[in-house]
Amino acid sequence: MTGYHGRGRGIILLLLLACLGGCGVSLDTYRGQGPDWDLARFFNGKLVAHGLVTDRSGEVTSRFRVEMQGHWQDGKGELFEQFYFDDGRQQTRTWFLSKGADGHWRGTASDVVGEAVGKTAGFALNWRYQLDLVLPDDQVVRVSFDDWMYLLDEDRLINRAEISKLGIHLGEVILYIERQETTAPSRASS
What we know:
The chain has 190 residues and is mainly beta. It has helices at 2-22, 39-42, and strands spanning 45-55, 60-73, 76-85, 90-99, 105-108, 112-121, 124-134, 140-153, 156-165, 168-179.
């Protein structure tokens, strides 16, 4: 009987390890599904975002609003973000964005370790990066972000980012971003 239970645990462990290594959604799943990403167009001009942070159990630990301003020139972008948290804290981040010859989007910011690397397919964008995250008590912890953005239409998206450290899930950031000023003619005038 002991041998049977030991094998059962071994099989369960193998299944868990296989799932951890390959159960995530592939970006290719969204290829050919529109609207297609144009990162420079979406993150150009004024944007506003509303979001929340959850811990590993799913409990909301923080809510926030972000005012953003993006500028692009010669294929390079600068995206300024001003965060306003529900506890009164404020934080800023400026992203410097560009598209590499390999088709990957790349981004840097003062609190990003190295560079964020992302790719688009259809209506989805996936970024991966490490961030020195400032906690409410002003401690800084280095975490990994697996950041997914899904276009709802040309002016709105949902952003869902998993936060982990050493492969251990710590929580998520969920964000709704909307462009405030569009450079295209309004639908009513067309």
